[in-house]
Every structure is written in C-alpha cells, then in structure tokens.
Amino acid sequence: MEILELGPGVIVFLRLDEGANIGLLRTDDGAVVVDTPSYPQDMQELLDAVGVSVPEVQLVINTHFHSDHTWGNQLFDCPILAHRLCRERMKANLDGEWSAEAIQAEIAKEEKVDPDWAREAREKLANLYITLPTQVFEKRREIAIGGVRIQVIHMGGHTPGSSVVWLPEARVLFAGDLIFEGRYPYLHDADVPALIAALKRLPKFDAQTVVPGHGALCGEAEIAALVDYLETTWTLTADHLAQGHSEAETVADPNYPHYAEEPVGRREENIRLMYDQLSRMEKDSP
Ligand SMILES: [Zn+2]
What we know:
Bound molecules: zinc ion
Radius of gyration: 19 Å
Structural class: alpha/beta
Distance between the termini: 50 Å
Number of strands: 12
CATH superfamily of the largest domain: Ribonuclease Z/Hydroxyacylglutathione hydrolase-like
C-alpha cells in the first residue's frame, strides 16, 4: 500500500494489491472517509497509519454498495452518506447474499481455491456487523466540513447507485469503481452503456487527479482507454449476437481487446456479462 497526499489534507490509500483504494480528507473540523475496506480492522489500520482517530471522522461516504467499499462502515458512529439505491441494495443484501450463512458459505467455497484468503476472511469477518448508510441523496449532495467543499454526485453505471466524490478546491475526483485502472473492470452489477456514458462525463470535471476504485492514480488517457475497452467489447459482442452466434462462439473470438490477464478469467467473464445484457435488451425491445 502507498499513502499519497494529493492536496492539502487530501489523502489516498492506494491499495494496488490489498483491495479498493480508500480516500481521506482532513480538515480543521474533522475528517471525511471515502469508502471503507472489506475488513473493519483494515479501516482502523489505515486511520492509525495517518494518525486520525475514529471520533475525528465526521462523515463517511460510500461510492457504491460492494463489500470492498462498505463493510468497514461499522467502525464509525458518524453519518454515513450514499446514494439511495446504494443503501437499498445493501439493505436487501442483508437477508440474501450478505446473510451470515451466505458469507460463511462463500468463504467455504473459496477455501479450496485460496486457503490463505479464506483463513484471513474468516478471522477478520468474525465480528462483522454490516452497517448501512444513514443518509441518502438522489442527484447530488454538497457538504462543507472545515470550509472544504465536498460534492457527491450520482453517476450509476458500475452499479445503479454508484457515485463519485469531487473536491473542487483540490480538484481531486474519487471515481469509485467507475474506473478500474490498467485491469479488467468488474461488471457483475453494471449497465455497460450507462457505465460508458458515466465515464464520458468524467473529463468535464477537469480534475487534476482521478482516484480510481482499483488501480493507480489516473487521468483522461486512462479513462479513454477504459471507454475504448468497453465500447470495443460491447460492439463486438453485439455483432456476434446479431449474427446469431452462441455465447461460447462469442467468447472464443480472439479479436477481443486484452488487458494483462488480471484478474484471471475476467476477460471472458466480461464478454459473457455483456452477451447476457445484450440478450436481455434484445428480448425487451419491441
Ligand atoms: Zn465495485
């Protein structure tokens, strides 16, 4: 992990190998956290690393519902802000894929594939108490803490309730998982055309630094590369579908764009997800 200061009080925990990037803003009136890691204890360690105590944190913002951006919420008593759809999905997950039984089953499944990960997850999630956002918004929310403005703007795309966090003074944009830098994006909950549209809005911020949800700090070139990957994969998949090709035939096409194969299998997974979304769109169209 690397800890970088992007502007006065603007800190990013760049966790290339550990998980999602986490943001922290320090002001004279307290701190703001942007996303919390899967393991609450990791959140505590990040705060310790920069000498910020839990009570100093005045606000937590979740960019979207995925566990690697929200499960560390339990550390905080302060308000937690997210888009309405983010909160709704988290709430629904409590009785489904995030029930204690479902989480244990997921860990047990991984045990055979990655026993070290499973051991760590079992240990670090033993006292997990999934904590929902306490405040929601619709289109955007502007907050000022210690005289520093923070804008949270709904974008959708990666998930229906995905938001970005914009610090206009420092011109830093926390893009959440709208951006995976230098690696395949995770698209399980994504609407691909909406994601492409959201990504195309990002250059309008004219940010000095863009913090992706995963990967290294980036700018317009990396956003353009991601848009290119998504558009090329989407268009190629639509062509296959139009020609009546099966999913297996489509995935076998060697002409799809490549990132370095990381995470393993995601290239194929993303083609399948797009094939599925396009098939549903075709079925729904009159
Ligand atoms: Zn995500």
